[in-house]
Amino acid sequence: MSAPSPKPELPAARLHRLANGVRVVCDPLPGLQTVALSVVAGRGARIEDEGRSGWSHLLEHMVFKGAGARSARDIVEAIEAEGGQINAATGYERTSFQVRALADGLELGSAVTADLVQRPRLEGDDLRREKQVVAQEIAEAADTPDDLIFELAQQAAFAGHPLGRPILGTTASIGRATPESLSAWRDALYAPEALVVSAAGAVDEDRLLGLAERDFGAMAPGAAAPASPPAAFAGGLRRIAKSLEQANLVILLPAVGASDPDYFALRLVAEILGGGMASRLFQEAREKRGLAYAIDAYAETYADVGVLGVFAGCAAADAAELARVIAAELQGMAQVRAPELARAKAQLKAAMFMSRESALARAEQAAAQVLLFGRPLGPQEIADQVDAVAPADLARLADRVFAPRCVAMAVLGPKAALPAAEAFQRALFG
Q1: Mind listing the pLDDT tens digit for each residue in 153-186?
Q2: Same-domain status, 301 and 170
Q3: Which partner from 48, 117, 266, 323 sits 20 to 30 angstroms from 104, CA to CA?
Q4: Residue 75 CB partners (closer than 8 Å, separation 6+)
Q5: 3-state DSSP call for residue 254?
Q6: 137 given a catalytic annotation
Q7: pTM exceeding the 0.90 threshold for the entire prediction
């Protein structure tokens, strides 16, 4: 009996470009009754100077206060009346507006997001109130150890660069924004040449292109966006003594960006180090030594730079010993056993394919790929790149990570935990 023929891969999402530069991605998924629409600008907090820190996030808030002919309440009621949900997010390199709805809600979702991006009201009274809201968000982040520790590590890693500043900005920087200055910022941030309209799920390609032309095709060229300076990993220590039950540690090492040939080697190293319960850090630090309840490793990447990170929570008295254990596991990352690499590849591919079962995740991923690579990537294309990573690639990446002899580390918690920073550096670099 002959083996069944493999199923042909579904084509990657299809890319189109409107005359004014807006790109449109269509990813139809047979059998779905819902659609996800993401309108993504390939600009975010990274293009802000210090005086405008937080403006991209503040603007994302402000557009929901009224846009086009709709009030703030009209915006959400119109979407929810058709069974939909609307949301937005600001990152360092992208700003995204997202609508999830029943299939018939695509037309309304496109019209509403077009108003948000192109025709927000930006009125003075709304801005004063929203500054207060964002100020509370900033205060909340400072009061939340799980948020503050990552912010401190980011500051240390990219000191003096926009990537080292919080996306929320500061109360002083957002206080400088006026309706007029935010309007000018919107013109640069959401310019058509930086915009991707991406839809996945129960979507017809011709219908999507017609809506994109209707709602985004008349956008005039935007103002020139500030150039983002090249990012460089600075490194350094941030330590704050705080009365907490547990010490929090974040360690960052310089790594590669999302477009680097070693990107998937970085993702696999993070998986091997701390990507699950079978990972080295979990087994050594938690299962064998009982030093930490929470410990994991991760890769954070931007267009041109990235970090290999480790987060851990532990008793203050164990922080220094845990730091030394982490250093030892990092030093051993160039030597990977075949079963470890196979497990990491399986986990990474599984995570990728599982995320593709969400229409919204597919729409967001396709938009991000278009902004970074100029086209959407097929899942098998990505899986093949993961499978192609060899032990020699991990060794090469390890050399690149350790060559600068530089680390960014943040420690937050009882005073007894603070020496963990020096203990880690001595253990890693001698």
Answers
A1: 999 999 999 999 999 999 999 999 999 999 999 9
A2: no
A3: 117
A4: 64, 66, 67, 86, 112, 115, 116
A5: strand
A6: no
A7: yes
